[in-house]
């Protein structure tokens, strides 16, 4: 403490003067302890040195038991010890900090139990253990291992260290409680005693997660670079200009030039051979100049890779110099610009195509100065549209304005002012007047181009000749008007329905009118549409609509609709599915037709047909009634003959000498007479039967002969002669025999009736007409056709007979027309009239 011994013994320097103030209270307690117990436990404190500096000391004292007033005390200078301790603490701090910075932890494990004996702070931090809970157990440490690495760590590290007593170096992963995965490198060294026993194992762990991430990022970066080079068709290289040796070539370089990376790097001579012969000289001169000038170079050339087409290459190189300015190497890239070259060629073609397209689409482009409005560029089509001559140069702004239609000029100027002054786009339609006075419609679009400081640099625009479009639009409007009118006249409404969202896309005005919806209320929903359908038809229509969607087939459905005023209309809806690219139905489009009148007409026609059939039947019954007397007489003849033959047969059998041969002949004649009577009755019954309609092959000549036999007595009763003129070899017809019998009988009875008072001849004639049709004519010598009313004889209920019904000729016409034929009447040159009907033959139908 730099004091003399005598100073301390003599009391010139008191012990209390040596003690700093903060230690004096502690000294008083020590003195009290000394007096009470006779000793003071060693304690650390500080004393002042003579120079005023503090000195750490260790003091202690004890009294002798004999005197109780004397004793011994010691003062130990702790300065050196404290310095060493401070140095040690600093080293521990530095070590902990260096471990933290290096992400390195140290540890020690018992050589027998393998349990941890020491963990550094960084060890705790790396593995996520809490230092306050003490050293982790071996099993806890193993649980931190990644499940996929745990067995490997136990096998290659732990067992290897403790059993084989060799150093280990292993990488593995650990999983922290929060799920974080870290990559660890573990280094361990076994400490062996002199007798070869394992005392302990010392080791370090290094958190290499960042390094792993960096390596992975580097691999990704290299992969991205390679992929980027592949995508951009850019290969990198380095070469030594002194020895003309290649130092580095990227994978993409190899691919571009067609070399195999597995082979040795190609020489400059090999590279030169791959360059197109016409470009080698230019490439070599560029390289020579670059080496001599130590400058950058940028050259394009063609190469001829094996098994490939010609490629266009752009090579850019940069010299690398040493400190003395000497050329060390060249670094650069080679870019495959084949696509760019092709694109440039395509661009040149495109410019030509654009010019052609502008001409075809009547579209011109232009550019004007943003300040003076001076025209800077006009395409060829602009000159053509506005009637200027390209050889005279670009037109002036005023000249351009003069070409605008006078009625549209102010509108054009106003739009232009807004573009130039307000710097906004303009879009307008206007008319121009050509030098020959032709007026054309133009759609102009202008766009302001601003400089970096926001000033108007220029205005670019396009001008499209829309004259044809305007004419087409007007024609379309007219067409739409005509279509709407046509739909109204035809009672047809069009519709388009979205089958995905189940809502209408388009409904025409006529559709709304037919369904009695108000167009101003918007398009009705699917549910509203269904509610308008008659309840009895609703389910059927919905099923048909859904089936058309499911089967991707056309829709054709008839149903009734019930309007709000209770009116019922018959509607036919016809639709066609619209498919998307995947073949799914996205829309149905079609029309609805009001077929109410058609349905009602069909119903009326059916009623008339049934009534006509009834009247036809009644006509036959009436006719048979008129023929009853004649038919009775005709039937009596075969019946009488049969009776006579029967009596003859009996007589021959009852005689003394039985004549079986003559009896058999009489019996046979009797059978023939009975059959003839039955045939007459069957013909009458067939005319009388109501439901006898069926088609068969009919020979009209045979039919005529049958009707002559049937009506002979009726003709004879009125002294009328019947004769025929039948053409041979007539083709047959397919018809209902009974109906044709009735039609022919009506015409023959009509002729007999006409000659009842005058007698005469009824002639029936057949012949082959044009188109392989068979014509039948019935001619009488009666009173002829009614004067002035000949065109009414086939009308219903028209008759000139006092007792006539006016239905015979109507029924005849209906029968003939139902067989595809026609009937008409002509006046004879003399007396009477001729009725004709013509039917298609089987030959005509087949043809």
Structure characterization notes:
It is elongated and about 205 Å long. It is 45% helix and 28% strand. The strands form seven sheets. It has a five-stranded antiparallel β-sheet, with helices on both faces. Strands 10-9-13-12-11 form a five-stranded antiparallel β-sheet, sandwiched between helices. With 847 residues, the chain is of the alpha+beta class. α20 crosses α22 and α22 runs parallel beside α23. The mean pLDDT is 82.
Distance between the termini: 149 Å
Strand order of the largest sheet: 5-4-8-7-6
Percent of residues in helices comes to 40-55%
E-strand count: 30
* Morphology: elongated
- Biggest sheet descriptor: 5 strands, antiparallel
Q: Helix- and strand-based class?
A: alpha+beta
Can you lay out the helices and strands and say which pair or pack?
Layout: H1 5-10, H2 15-18, H3 21-37, E1 39-48, E2 54-63, E3 71-77, H4 79-102, E4 104-110, E5 116-119, H5 121-127, H6 138-143, H7 150-164, E6 168-175, E7 181-192, E8 198-207, H8 209-232, E9 234-240, E10 245-249, H9 251-257, H10 268-274, H11 277-293, E11 297-303, E12 311-321, E13 327-336, H12 338-361, E14 363-369, E15 375-378, H13 380-386, H14 397-402, H15 409-422, E16 426-433, E17 439-450, E18 456-465, H16 467-490, E19 492-498, E20 503-507, H17 509-515, H18 526-532, H19 535-551, E21 555-562, E22 568-579, E23 585-594, H20 596-654, H21 660-688, E24 695-698, H22 700-717, E25 720-726, E26 733-736, H23 737-754, E27 760-769, E28 773-779, H24 808-818, E29 822-827, E30 833-840, H25 842-846
Parallel strand pairs: 25-27
Antiparallel strand pairs: 1-2, 2-3, 4-5, 4-8, 6-7, 7-8, 9-10, 9-13, 11-12, 12-13, 14-15, 14-18, 16-17, 17-18, 19-20, 19-23, 21-22, 22-23, 24-26, 27-28, 28-30, 29-30
Helix pairs in contact: 20-21, 20-22, 22-23, 23-24
């Amino acid at each position: 403490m730099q004091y003399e011994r005598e100073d301390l013994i003599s009391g010139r320097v008191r012990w209390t003067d040596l003690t700093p103030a903060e230690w004096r209270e502690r000294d008083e307690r020590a003195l009290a302890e000394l007096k009470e117990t006779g000793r003071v436990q060693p304690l650390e404190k500080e004393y002042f040195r003579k120079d005023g500096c503090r000195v750490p000391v260790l003091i202690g004292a004890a009294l002798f038991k004999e005197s109780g007033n004397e004793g011994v005390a010691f003062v130990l200078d702790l300065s050196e010890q404290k310095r060493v301790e401070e140095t040690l603490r600093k080293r521990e701090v530095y070590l902990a900090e260096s471990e933290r910075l290096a992400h390195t932890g140290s540890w020690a494990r018992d050589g027998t139990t393998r349990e941890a004996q020491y963990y550094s702070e960084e060890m705790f931090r790396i593995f996520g253990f809490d230092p306050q809970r003490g050293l982790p157990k071996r099993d806890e440490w193993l649980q931190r291992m990644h499940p996929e690495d745990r067995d490997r760590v136990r096998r290659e590290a732990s067992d290897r260290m403790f059993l084989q007593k060799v150093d280990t170096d292993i990488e593995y992963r650990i999983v922290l409680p929060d799920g974080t995965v870290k990559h660890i490198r573990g280094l361990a060294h076994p400490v062996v005693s002199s007798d070869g026993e394992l005392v302990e194992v010392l080791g370090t762990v290094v958190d290499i997660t960042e390094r792993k991430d960096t390596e992975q990022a580097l691999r990704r970066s290299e992969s991205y670079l390679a992929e980027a080079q592949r995508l951009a068709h850019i290969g990198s290289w380095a070469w030594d200009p002194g020895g003309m040796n290649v130092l580095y070539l990227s994978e993409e370089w190899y691919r571009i030039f067609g070399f195999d990376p597995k082979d040795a790097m190609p020489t400059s001579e090999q590279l030169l051979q791959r360059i197109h012969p016409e470009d080698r000289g230019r490439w070599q001169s560029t390289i020579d100049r670059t080496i001599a000038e130590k400058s950058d170079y940028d050259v394009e050339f063609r190469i001829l890779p094996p098994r490939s087409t010609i490629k266009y290459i752009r090579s850019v190189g940069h010299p690398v110099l040493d400190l003395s300015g000497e050329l060390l190497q060249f670094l650069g890239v080679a870019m495959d610009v084949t696509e760019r070259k092709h694109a440039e060629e395509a661009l040149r073609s495109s410019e030509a195509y654009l010019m052609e397209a502008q001409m075809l689409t009547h579209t011109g482009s232009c550019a004007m100065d943003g300040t003076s409005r001076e025209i800077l560029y006009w395409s060829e089509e602009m000159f053509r549209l506005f009637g200027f001559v390209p050889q005279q140069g670009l037109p002036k702004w005023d000249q351009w304005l003069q070409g605008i239609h006078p009625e549209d000029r102010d509108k054009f100027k106003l739009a232009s002012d807004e573009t130039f002054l307000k710097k906004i786009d303009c879009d307008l339609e206007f008319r121009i007047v050509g030098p020959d006075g032709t007026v054309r419609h133009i759609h102009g679009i202008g766009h302001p181009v601003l400089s970096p400081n926001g000033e108007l640099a220029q205005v670019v625009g396009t001008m499209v000749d829309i004259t044809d479009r305007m004419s087409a639009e007007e024609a379309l409007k007219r067409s739409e008007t005509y279509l709407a009118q046509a739909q109204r006249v035809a009672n047809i409404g069009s519709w388009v329905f979205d089958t995905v969202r189940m809502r209408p896309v388009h409904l025409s005005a006529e559709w709304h009118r037919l369904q009695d919806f108000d167009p101003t209320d918007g398009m009705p929903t699917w549910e509203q549409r269904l509610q308008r359908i008659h309840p009895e038809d609703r389910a059927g229509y919905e099923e048909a609509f859904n089936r058309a969607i499911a089967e991707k087939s056309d829709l054709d459905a008839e149903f009734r609709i019930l309007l709000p005023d209770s009116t019922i209309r018959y509607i036919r809806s016809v639709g066609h599915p619209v498919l998307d690219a995947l073949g799914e139905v996205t829309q149905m489009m079609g029309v609805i037709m009001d077929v109410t009148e058609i349905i009602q007409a069909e119903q009326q026609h059916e009623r008339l047909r049934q009534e006509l059939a009834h009247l036809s039947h009644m006509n036959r019954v009436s006719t048979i009634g008129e023929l009853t007397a004649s038919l009775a007489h005709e039937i009596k003849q075969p019946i009488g003959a049969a009776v006579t033959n029967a009596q003859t047969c009996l007589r021959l059998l009852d005689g003394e000498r039985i004549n079986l041969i003559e009896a058999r002949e009489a019996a046979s004649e009797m059978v023939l007479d009975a059959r003839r009577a039955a045939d007459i009755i069957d013909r009458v019954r067939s005319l009388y039967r109501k439901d006898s309609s069926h088609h068969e092959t009919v020979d009209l000549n045979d039919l005529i002969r049958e009707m002559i036999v049937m009506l002979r007595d009726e003709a004879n009763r009125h002294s009328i002669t019947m004769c025929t003129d039948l053409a041979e070899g007539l083709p047959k017809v397919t018809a209902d025999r009974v109906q044709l019998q009735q039609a022919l009988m009506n015409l023959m009875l009509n002729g007999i009736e006409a000659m009842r008072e005058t007698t005469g001849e009824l002639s029936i004639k057949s012949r082959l007409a044009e188109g392989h049709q068979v014509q039948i004519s019935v001619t009488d010598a009666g009173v002829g056709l009614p004067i002035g009313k000949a065109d009414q004889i086939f009308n219903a209920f028209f008759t000139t007979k006092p007792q006539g019904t006016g239905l015979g000729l109507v029924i005849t016409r209906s029968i003939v027309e139902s067989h595809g034929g026609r009937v008409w009447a002509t006046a004879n040159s003399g007396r009477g009239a001729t009725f004709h009907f013509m039917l298609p033959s089987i030959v005509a139908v087949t043809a």
